[in-house]
Amino acid sequence: MPANGVPETAEPPRKPPRWRRWAVEIGIFLAIFFAIQAWMARDVPAGPAPDFATVAADGRALSLAEWRAAHPGEAVGVYFWAEWCPICTAQEGTIDGVQADYPVLTVAMQSGGAPAVEKVLADRGLAWATAIDADGRIAQSYGLRGVPAFVIVDPTGQIRSVSLGYTTGWGLRARLWWAGLSS
Fold first, then answer.
1. SS (H, E, C) 24-68
2. Angle of helix 169-181 relative to helix 92-99, nearest 10 degrees?
3. Which residues are bridge partners to 80 per DSSP?
4. Can you say whether the dihedral through the CA atoms of 112, 118, 124, 130 is positive or negative?
5. pLDDT band at residue 43, thresholds of 50, 70 and 90?
6. Model-level pTM?
């Protein structure tokens, strides 16, 4: 027997299977991701979605209440974005796709007045119903500190979900679908 007291025939300890390590790493990543999402959404009010009345990019008056009334019995999305936000620009195609299936009202936060936002929408080829939040008060009423943000409002007017940062189209559709069922 060697001086360390371990027989030379002892096998080295076995490594756990690779899939188990990956599962643990994915679990840790998801826990951190959802913790960050919860922390970022900590100021978002629970319960009824705060109503707002403002001007739309096309110059007409617009409110969340009338937008919801135009889509009775449906969950609606409220998408906060800014013309200066590169992540918002990357998400434009996703929002276009989601709008094909669900009503989405977009809110241009701190992007100028109606003429400036209308020009941005035209330049980017976006046919979005867009509320103007030139001073950030609408976003502030939702407890949002940055963009992009996507708020899901169920058919009864309750906030069901908030996503901050880039969000996938299938994730948004799933949340809108679920909010439509759960009320």
1. HHHHHHHHHHHHHHHHHCCCCCCCECCCCEEEECCCCEEEHHHHH
2. 40
3. 107, 149
4. positive
5. low
6. 0.79
